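Appendix C: a fully annotated inverse folding record. The material below is reproduced so that readers can follow the format used throughout the book. The structure is listed first as tokens, followed by the designed sequence.
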């Protein structure tokens, strides 16, 4: 067909690039009449961790012909190496599928509680969700959390039981559990094996039949919602968009309403799953936008994109900014890498705008940054990406949370770094963040879970038996007791069967103190932490004992002390190297030997008074990465 055959009057039909094989990067176009909204389905896949979301997305890609069999790989939509290695989804990914003359815009979302903000963002671009439940495990904590998010957004839910091919699968039992807990009729719950592909065609049919088509005015003022952005070093910010009203066209002048910035649409397109440019996207469609933006702050998730010539009257609701919950200091092992480290943080922030950072200085570790994260896993992911993608070697200090200090002069201060806590004489009270933690586990582990939660200052809020074999425990707990190793303890004490979800519920006053660690009577701020007064002694004792094992011996004796204010609560001593100064003596008067030993003792005492403890950087790495 000649190019002239594809030319059209301005009003007749649009040009789309749809369903080309993945390796085909040609510029040919297939003519399509204006997209009928009744043929569009927008949905997200939501589930608990490891219930098979990404594997299900793989089968849907294969079945719809979006990816050829020879090019298929596991976790196809997970683009980062760290996602493949850990077997988890970190960033949401969207793709456009064709099924029986319908277009399905699919968004694969993360399952871990730390990345719940990714799920909430994706739901704003959808009319429905596919809820995946493991047929061998049933409903888990994050299943409930994501389902409630979908219900709050008034989305249609298509529930499926995955992994029906497993020997331990019991789909009938868990279909009834879904009906009893979520109110979805058991006969409407689909049985699927994402691994073998069984039931996936029926799922696609159910998506077309049950999930409503989008409703928007293609001829109205343009309103497009940015629900994700990432930074491409060659093309700038690439934004995932959902067109709510109007039509967005290539080369159109656009206004980013919240940022009040104007840009031209260099390229718009759809993901098939490779990016394919199109001429325009109308109301109800999902695609991507490239406008040559170099600052991702101008294209944040939740931003409303409209026409610069005929802007919309008001922006879309957008999203609440994610609030950091866990804070730690990150420092380069080599101080000369500080500038490189700062540049790396700026670049990574373009791809993940959910963490914060600001400069800070430590007497022990030098110059670094105080970083805020959504959770401990988020902190590990960011640190690993910094080390891997930017070739850095970093030290992370002990994780902390944000405290609110009521000063004696009536002012309130926010402290996220224990070393910044004022002296106790300067404040009257301190409040810490609390959360509501929901745990689901076999009922055999009820006592074990209650013991764990009560040891972390938790108070029981509720107990619900989902079935005779499974129970849900709801506890109110301090965030500081959860973020460090609570999840690991939860899994180890329940043989891996328990699941956890939590949400912040505000601040409460507590009897909290700062425990400092002193080397040779000098405070090392990297080891300072805020704990409950009842736990202070145990923390100080364990830390001093562990540091004694890993701190290298010096030429003089080094006391390691844990202190609350001016009160020492624990102490360990690293013994000094001892040179045998009497080796050259062969018999003779004992006073000569005593004289040499006394001289050595006086020299070590003088050295201790003027010397500093030499602590290699790897010592901090070993100490600050301790599990306990």
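Designed amino acids, in order:
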């Amino acid at each position: 067909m000649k190019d002239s055959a594809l030319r059209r009057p301005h009003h007749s039909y649009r040009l789309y690039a749809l369903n080309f094989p993945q390796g085909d990067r040609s510029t040919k176009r297939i003519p399509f009449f204006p997209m009928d909204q009744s043929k569009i389905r927008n949905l997200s896949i939501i589930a608990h961790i490891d219930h098979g979301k990404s594997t299900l997305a793989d089968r849907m890609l294969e079945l719809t012909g979006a990816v050829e069999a020879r090019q298929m790989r596991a976790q196809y939509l997970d683009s980062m190496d760290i996602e493949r290695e850990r077997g988890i989804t970190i960033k949401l990914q969207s793709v456009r599928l064709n099924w029986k003359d319908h277009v399905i815009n699919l968004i694969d979302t993360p399952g871990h509680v730390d990345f719940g903000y990714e799920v909430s963002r994706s739901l704003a671009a959808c009319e429905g969700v596919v809820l995946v439940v493991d047929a061998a495990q049933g409903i888990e904590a994050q299943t409930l959390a994501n389902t409630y998010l979908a219900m709050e957004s008034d989305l249609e839910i298509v529930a499926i039981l995955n992994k029906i091919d497993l020997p331990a699968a019991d789909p009938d039992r868990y279909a009834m559990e879904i009906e009893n807990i979520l109110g979805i009729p058991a006969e409407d719950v689909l049985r699927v094996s994402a691994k073998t592909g069984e039931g996936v065609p029926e799922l696609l049919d159910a998506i077309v039949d049950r999930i409503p088509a989008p409703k928007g005015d293609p001829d109205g003022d343009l309103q497009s919602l940015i629900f994700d952005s990432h930074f491409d070093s060659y093309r700038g910010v690439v934004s995932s968009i959902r067109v709510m009203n109007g039509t967005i066209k290539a080369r159109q002048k656009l206004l980013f309403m919240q940022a009040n910035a104007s840009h031209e649409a260099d390229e718009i397109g759809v993901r098939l799953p490779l990016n394919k440019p199109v001429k325009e996207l109308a109301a109800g469609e999902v695609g991507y936008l490239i406008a040559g933006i170099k600052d991702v702050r101008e294209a944040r998730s939740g931003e409303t994109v409209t026409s610069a010539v005929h802007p919309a009257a008001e922006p879309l609701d957008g999203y609440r900014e994610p609030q950091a919950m866990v804070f730690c200091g990150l420092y380069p092992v080599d101080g000369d890498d500080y500038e490189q480290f700062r540049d790396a943080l700026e670049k990574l922030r373009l791809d993940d705008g959910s963490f914060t950072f600001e400069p800070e200085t430590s007497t022990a570790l030098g110059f670094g940054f105080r970083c805020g994260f959504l959770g401990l896993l988020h902190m590990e992911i960011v640190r690993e990406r910094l080390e891997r993608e930017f070739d850095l070697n970093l030290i992370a200090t002990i994780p902390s949370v944000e405290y609110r200090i009521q000063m004696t002069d009536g002012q309130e201060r926010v402290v996220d770094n224990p070393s910044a806590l004022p002296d106790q004489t300067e404040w009257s009270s301190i409040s810490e963040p609390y959360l509501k933690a929901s745990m689901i586990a076999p009922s055999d582990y009820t006592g074990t879970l209650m013991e764990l939660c009560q040891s972390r200052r938790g108070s029981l809020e509720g107990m619900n038996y989902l079935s005779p074999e499974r129970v849900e425990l709801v506890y109110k707990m301090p965030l500081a007791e959860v973020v460090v190793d609570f999840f690991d303890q939860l899994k180890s004490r329940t043989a891996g069967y328990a699941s956890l979800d939590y949400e912040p519920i505000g601040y409460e006053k507590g009897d909290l103190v700062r425990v400092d660690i002193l080397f040779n009577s000098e405070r090392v701020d990297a080891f300072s932490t805020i704990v409950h007064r009842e736990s202070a002694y145990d923390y100080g004792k364990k830390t001093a004992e562990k540091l004694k094992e890993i701190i290298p011996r010096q030429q003089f004796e080094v006391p390691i002390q844990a202190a609350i204010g001016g009160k020492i609560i624990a102490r360990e001593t690293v013994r000094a190297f001892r040179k045998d100064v009497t080796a050259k003596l062969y018999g003779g008067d004992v006073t000569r030997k005593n004289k040499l030993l006394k001289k050595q003792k006086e020299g070590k005492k003088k050295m201790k008074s003027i010397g500093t403890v030499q602590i290699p950087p790897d010592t901090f790495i070993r100490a600050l990465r301790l599990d306990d």
